[in-house]
């Protein structure tokens, strides 16, 4: 699908690196980025959204089978089993290359570089074989907790899903807000549904790995203006292909490097969308707990929405 870039050029997107930059906003040593918008007071207020005790997970199971769209499956095997008569314990091993387009994960602010820099001007060379020495995921282990907001774009358009490579515009985000009776605001953890997984399930041919619905680069000023703390979705958040040559993944590059926006990729929002629709509300208390991976560039994670 050819992307209508809404009049934006590669130079315009590159310009967002300066015009939407949060470098220095919270000090020269800041490594939390847009999570600074999400205050302890906001977390306490978000916790009041829990009235039923219902919990909806949004993460997918670790992919363990190789396939055309999953070339690097997770490794999972039992090192100790209960098959022998004298067995007293079961133990397993897990290894996963989580970045990519399959595993549910969070991107740290050291995951993407632009012109030799990462978020807040730290040099890319600070990410070395022993890990990231700035902007690593272990610095925000306890911070992705607050009000979650789901914008179900296909539902707002009266459709079950978006097609691979279909871009989401600001107008569509605001249409979803209007129809759902919710407004994305400062400190929110924004989740945007495209309907990726049910669309993939009915595909009659191998899923086009490099084509995913997602946010168009023109939504970046909107995300910056709304002061979103974290962005997540059921794809990689970027529409792919993006239609731009110099910044192929604008949401990742401008969002992570320029704005300090942690991204939640490859989550499953179907059960959450159903739960929100059944209750007639699309905001909830939301928690993500990354693994305590010292100097990690991100982490597999489980997101939990609570009503």
Topology (SSEs and partners):
Blueprint (H helix, E strand, L loop, with lengths): L9 H10 L20 H8 L7 E3 L17 E6 L10 E5 L9 E3 L19 E2 L2 E2 L12 E8 H4 L10 E2 L1 H11 L8 E5 L2 H6 L12 E2 L4 H7 L3 E4 L16 H9 L3 E4 L4 H10 L3 E6 L9 E3 L2 E4 L1
Helix pairs in contact: 1-7
Give an account of the 3D structure:
With 307 residues, the protein is of the alpha/beta class. The chain folds into 2 domains: 10-60 and 104-306, 3-Layer(bba) Sandwich (Glucose Oxidase, domain 1); 64-97, no CATH class. The chain is 21% helix and 19% strand. The chain contains 8 helices and 15 strands. The chain has helices spanning 10-19, 40-47, 153-156, 170-180, 196-201, 220-226, 250-258, 270-279, and strands at 55-57, 75-80, 91-95, 105-107, 127-128, 131-132, 145-152, 167-168, 189-193, 214-215, 230-233, 262-265, 283-288, 298-300, 303-306. The protein starts with 9 loop residues before the first helix and ends with a strand. The model has no long low-confidence stretch (mean pLDDT 95).
Short description:
With 307 residues, the chain is of the alpha/beta class.
């Amino acid at each position: 699908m050819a992307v209508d870039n809404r009049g934006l050029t590669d130079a315009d997107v590159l310009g967002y690196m300066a015009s939407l930059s949060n470098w220095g906003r919270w000090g020269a040593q800041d490594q939390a980025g847009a999570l600074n918008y999400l205050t302890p007071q906001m977390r306490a207020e978000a916790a009041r959204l829990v009235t039923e005790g219902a919990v909806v997970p949004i993460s997918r199971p670790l992919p363990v089978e190789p396939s055309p769209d999953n070339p690097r499956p997770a490794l999972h095997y039992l090192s100790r089993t209960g098959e022998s008569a004298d067995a007293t314990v079961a133990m397993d091993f897990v290894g996963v290359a989580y970045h990519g387009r399959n595993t549910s994960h969070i991107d740290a602010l050291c995951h993407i570089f632009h012109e030799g820099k990462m978020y807040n001007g730290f040099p890319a060379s600070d990410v070395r074989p022993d890990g990231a020495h700035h902007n690593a995921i272990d610095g925000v282990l306890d911070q992705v907790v607050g009000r979650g907001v789901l914008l179900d774009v296909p539902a707002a358009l009266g459709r079950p899903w978006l097609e691979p490579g279909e871009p989401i515009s600001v107008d569509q985000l605001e249409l979803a807000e209007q129809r759902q009776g919710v407004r994305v605001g400062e400190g929110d953890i924004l989740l945007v549904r495209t309907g990726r997984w049910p669309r993939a399930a009915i595909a009659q041919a191998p899923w086009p790995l490099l084509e995913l619905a997602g946010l168009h680069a023109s939504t970046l000023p909107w995300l910056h203006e709304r002061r979103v703390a974290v962005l997540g979705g059921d794809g990689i958040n970027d529409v792919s292909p993006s239609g731009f040559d110099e910044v192929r993944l604008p949401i990742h590059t401008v969002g992570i490097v320029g704005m300090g926006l942690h991204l939640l990729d490859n989550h499953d929002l179907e059960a959450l969308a159903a739960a929100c629709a059944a209750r007639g509300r699309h905001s909830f208390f939301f928690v993500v707990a990354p693994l305590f991976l010292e100097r990690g560039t991100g982490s597999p994670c489980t997101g939990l929405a609570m009503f």
